[in-house]
Design goal:
Length: about 120
């Protein structure tokens, strides 16, 4: 049963990696077809790179550093704030800024709690 779960997990992560590469390709095509790069495009590419890094970290060490999903969430929230632009309500901006702050504090605490010599606390899967 453990082997089936492990195989399924690795297969799903491989699909995540493939879909991420596909997403990167589609985003690059969009940028090339429009002829302009916007900040939201760069942030989306950064999210894709972090997702690939997370999948790569799992295949390399069979663990996922906890800070990577936190950084992805911070980047996604920042991208959301930028995409909303001037139409965003003040209360939504406050909530989103609060979420970014909480995630940044969580990443900082994780760094403080990391064992010496390790750059991150890791979650075994």
């Amino acid at each position: 049963m453990d082997r089936l779960i492990s195989f399924t997990e690795k297969a799903i992560l491989l699909l995540v990696a493939c879909f991420t590469v596909y997403g990167v390709a589609m985003e690059m095509l969009k940028v090339f077809s429009t002829g302009k790069v916007e900040l939201t495009d760069l942030l989306l590419m950064f999210i894709y790179a972090e997702v690939l890094g997370m999948v790569g970290a799992f295949y390399k060490s069979n663990t996922i550093p906890i800070s990577i999903p936190i950084f992805i969430a911070v980047t996604a929230l920042c991208r959301l704030v930028i995409l909303q632009g001037k139409e965003a309500s003040a209360i939504n901006l406050i909530y989103e800024a609060g979420a970014v702050l909480l995630l940044a504090i969580a990443a900082y605490v994780i760094r403080l709690k990391s064992p010496p010599g390790k750059s991150d606390v890791q979650s075994d899967h």
